[in-house]
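Before any further analysis, backbone shapes were mapped to integers, which produced the following:

***
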Amino acid sequence: IMAITWDIKELKTDANNGVNYVLYFAWDEEVTGEGLESRSYHGYYDAFIEYTPDPSAEGYTAFNDLTKDQVIGWVKASLGSEQVATIEAAIATQIADKQQLQGPIALPWE
């Protein structure tokens, strides 16, 4: 099972430091083989969501107090578990397709 990494590229804010949108990405890297025969395969997905928190809501966090994990939680909650699973499956498929296209490493004289 791949360990997809989610991260935040950018938060766009308004004049009052309220978040307007979150630019996020998810990625994974798989390395196969060892030494000279090692290969690295990458899968990647990026997009943005519009997000406007309500300062009067319970649990509201001021912009300067936000954590990356909290914003990633917003992204995943906004997408929903089905869309998160779809994105992660698409990344896994990208890597599998690249691995299949690449084929085995071989030199005829070795």
Helices lie at 68-79, 81-102. The chain has a mean pLDDT of 80. The beta strands are 5-13, 19-32, 39-50. Residues 81-102 form the longest helix (22 residues).
